[in-house]
Every structure is written in C-alpha cells, then in structure tokens.
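JOB MANIFEST
job_type = single_chain_structure
chain_count = 1
residues = 244
[input]
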Amino acid sequence: MLEAAQFQKAFGTMLASPDAVTDPAVRRALMVHRNTASKAARDALVANYPVVAALVGEDAFAACASSYVEAKPPREARLCLYGDHFPAFVDAWTTFAEAPYLGAVASVERLVIEALFAADAPVLDPAAVAAGLDAEAPLLRHPATRTAKTLMPAASLWLAHQPDAAPDALETIVWGPELILITRPEDAVEVRIIDTAARAFLAGSTLADAATRAAGEGGDVATIFASLLGAGAFAAQDQQGEIQ
C-alpha cells in the first residue's frame, strides 16, 4: 500500500499527464476527473472575480480563466480562495492589452476575497475611544483591513458594478490613481476610496503617530479617525498582530 503522500504525488502526476497512462480505462477516468476539476476551478474564478468577468464578457473571461487554470491549477480544496495570482495573469493577458485597468480591478477583487475570509477579531469600539484611548498604545489594523494604491480607478470600477451602484456610476468615474481601503465591518466587505491623509493615518503605529501623520497631510484628524472607526479598520487594543 502506498503512503498517502506517495499516492497523492502519483495521482497528481497522472492527472497532469493523463495521455501517458497506458490503461485506457484509467486514462478515461483521469480525463473525466481533470475536466470536472478544471470546470470547478474556472467557475471559482468567475465567482471570485465577477467584476472582471462583467467587464470583459463571458467568452473572453472563459478563455483567460482556462489558460490560468492550466498554468496554475488549484493546490488546495478551498476554491473560495483560488486565484491569488490571477490579477498579474490578467495584467499580462495579451487579449486584454487595450484595457490596462483590468489587472488593477482584479487586484481589488483579490483584496475583497482576502478581507472576506480574514480572521475574526473585535473592532476598536468608538465607546472605548470616548472612554479614553491610550494615545501611545499600538494602533492595530483589523485582520480584514486591506489598503492599496492603483494607477487606475479600480475601486470606482468595482463600486460601479455593485447592486447598490447609481445608474450612471460608470459615466461619472474620474480616470486616475486611487487610494483604496477595504474593510469588513459587521461581516460585510466594504470598499472605499480614501485620500492621502487617511492613508497616512492608517500608517501610524499609535494613535498619536497616526494623528501626526494625517495632520502632516493636511487632514482633519478627528473626522478621519471617526470615518476609519466606522469602517471597522482597527482591531480592539487587546488584539495582537497586524495584517496589511
């Protein structure tokens, strides 16, 4: 009997090259399994990158997704997390060369996935701030908090494809770089466009440091802090660690 690891390695080798298997019955079974697994992976990419799929259309996305699955097949069973290299793949996909914003949109969608499945942790409660937050204590991001800077209006494009978007959302997009904040308050992922002062505040190691950084960018510190608290950007002070 093969050990589990040996069996998995042997099976993976056969699955990668089913034509090399001499037994026709086994070869057919491998092809069925491979096709089923490939379709599941492609479906996962559609689910994980719905805005990119909507922007390029079903056929174009299917072609790109099929090539990605061939190049980078899933390595774990959780397909909800599949496609971590897909943004770079989209950015390099020749067919999409005339739409250079697609890679940036895909990168936002990847961060949305990461935020959705990030660890749970209590958020910093405004009531705790009102009761007297230690300005020199570590100011920690919530595990679901993500930030990004894109050269294209990737967040605006993502937001324009959400169910609550205004009918003219696409027509009102301002084309240029964006600073983006992604959080998960109350278990719902939110994508926001922020300014340099808010980004500077988020870079602070303590509340005092964050306030100094934001003020240096000309920001209203109180307004910025209140907005970030409402977004659930910070973890309660007894939480350890930081994820960017």
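[summary]
The chain has a mean pLDDT of 87.
The chain is about 50% helix and 5% strand.
exit_status = 0
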